[in-house]
Design goal:
alpha/beta, 10-stranded mixed sheet, 8 helices, 34% helix, 26% strand, globular
Length: 235
């Protein structure tokens, strides 16, 4: 639970999973406390799944975020809230989840989307009202390589800008998960974007194992403001 090595290598924040599909993660608060002590901004995300009502999952997410916020005296100004929608998500579930979180907290959470053709077709074909609702939430994209995501209808997006265009909802991305972790041959393997003007190293700093990695589109001061706008206040 010591994440100080991330901070030592330049990490500014840590976003931990609070739960998914009606089940809470038990180590979330411990990871975030460690990140806060190391001087990193804390954030939480919830992975929405279709077998549990979206509003019920939003309530569980809010309760966990509020519990974490009350659990200690924080150095960070806010706890970022994020919604993770996978390839099986329905538009109505997305908007109901976002509306519930915002109505109870006053915070518009960040929207994380997989690089899924099904999701890209779903969102790009949404009505204008649904797109306007989603657009109020910042877009957190996931793209680990420039050839991934090709489907029967859409080609590989190639870049985070290409992925944003294919979703046809947001004008730009705010966060980009450019590094992931895959389990192969009995060990974890890094999956890291490196193409064109975006060349990221396979490992983060001097770490000897792969980690999920993200970049924010803006300065550090802008990142702190972003955290405060889309997070629950901690002090």
């Amino acid at each position: 639970n010591d994440v100080s090595a991330l901070r030592a290598n330049g990490a500014s924040a840590l976003i931990a999973r609070a739960g998914k599909g009606g089940n809470l993660d038990t180590k979330c608060a411990t990871f975030l406390s460690s990140a806060d002590r190391a001087g990193m901004l804390p954030g939480v995300y919830y992975r929405l799944q279709t077998h549990v009502d979206a509003v019920k999952q939003a309530d569980q997410f809010i309760s966990r975020a509020q519990s974490i916020a009350r659990s200690r005296s924080w150095n960070a100004p806010a706890l970022l809230l994020c919604a993770d929608f996978d390839a099986n998500s329905r538009l109505s579930d997305m908007t109901r989840f976002l509306d519930r979180v915002e109505s109870r907290t006053g915070v518009t959470p960040v929207v994380y989307l997989e690089n899924s053709e099904q999701l890209r077709l779903l969102l790009s074909g949404a009505d204008s009202g649904t797109k306007a609702r989603l657009r109020r939430a910042p877009y957190w994209c996931a793209l680990y390589n420039h050839t991934g995501g090709a489907g029967r209808v859409l080609p590989a997006p190639g870049s985070p800008e290409g992925l944003t265009r294919q979703y046809n909802v947001w004008s730009d991305w705010s966060l980009w998960q450019y590094g992931g972790v895959d389990w192969q041959h009995g060990r974890s393997q890094p999956k890291v974007y490196s193409n064109g003007r975006y060349r990221f190293p396979t490992y983060f700093g001097n770490l000897d194992r792969p980690v999920e990695r993200n970049v924010f589109k803006g300065s550090h001061a802008s990142l702190v403001s972003f955290w405060q706008r889309h997070g629950v206040k901690l002090r």
